[in-house]
Amino acid sequence: MKKIGILFGQERSFPMAFIERVNSKGIENIVAEPVRIDKSAQGLNSGYAVIIDRISQDVPFYRAILKNEALTGTAVINNPFWWSADDKYFNNSLMTQIGVPVPKTVILPSYDLPTDTKPESFSNLAYPLAWDEIFAYVGFPAYMKPYAGGGWKSVYKLHDKEEFYQKHGETEQLVMLLQEEIVFEEYYRCYCIGGKHVRIMPYEPRNPHHLRYQAEFSPSPERLRLMEDIVLRINHYLGYDFNTVELAVKDGVPYAIDFGNPAPDAERAGVGEENFEWVVETAANYAIERAVAQKEGQSNLTWGEYIKRSATGVPLI
């Protein structure tokens, strides 16, 4: 019997629906359940062929457990080693190398010194930074957000350098990105599961949260194909099995705005009934596929093209 586990936190509708959907298919020797952790020992596997990770980004204990599971043969979705290494600044930098349009972006040192450091710890950092050059490159209005954050936490819209200085002073030890504003005509949130299943969803981030999937636009067939290609390219290079990509369309060009979301919102109340049904069905089928393919005693992780090409010396594009 191969077990598919789902590791989750406060969410309820997606994990329970996922488990029910997998089990309802009646696949011989496949069963889904919530992951149960009552002990852990180095180098030993807990018996799951597949684990879908929905919470380790917030619980370091779980991330360590999942690395051990992956090391001992579990197909962890998403790869916990890559997830630990990734961040939004690297995301953007990689896109500049593989031909995906992104907003102009710079990274900023934290306003407050990190714990256990002193001014002398930053001997190589110029002070002040070349702020006028940075502002000229990014432009205003601009957005400031954590380089490793998510969920719209600590995100600021800034209209001028005076507002930047004020708000940056509120960010304490967070390392922030300063990013060009893309004034978009259309915006899309795009699921990608298994590096091959894509759902393009019109999305209006300027609406109240419960109305964001109620947008009054839809893509032309040509734009749909273009966005699908961008979503697949991003996920192939990053290596995520389960991710969302947000695309802002300006002057006909889809800009990748936010595309490192390996535990994206999948709750029924958040994404709406039709999108929820697609995510549950697609995730269930993909998890079953991975369980069938899983082989004991070897790595069953997904690695992206960036890692694979870098390891073999193949050019990125």
TrEMBL record:
GO biological process, one term: SOS response
Key words, A-Z: ATP-binding, Ligase, Nucleotide-binding
GO-annotated molecular function: ATP binding; metal ion binding; ribosomal S6-glutamic acid ligase activity
InterPro entries in the cross-refs: ATP-grasp (IPR011761), ATP_grasp_subdomain_1 (IPR013815)
Segments forming domain ATP-grasp: 92-293
Gene Ontology, cellular component aspect: cytoplasm
Gene3D superfamilies registered for this protein in UniProt: ATP-grasp fold, A domain
Keyword ATP-binding belongs to the record: yes
Protein known as: Glutathione synthase/RimK-type ligase, ATP-grasp superfamily
Organism whose genome encodes this protein: Flavisolibacter ginsengisoli DSM 18119
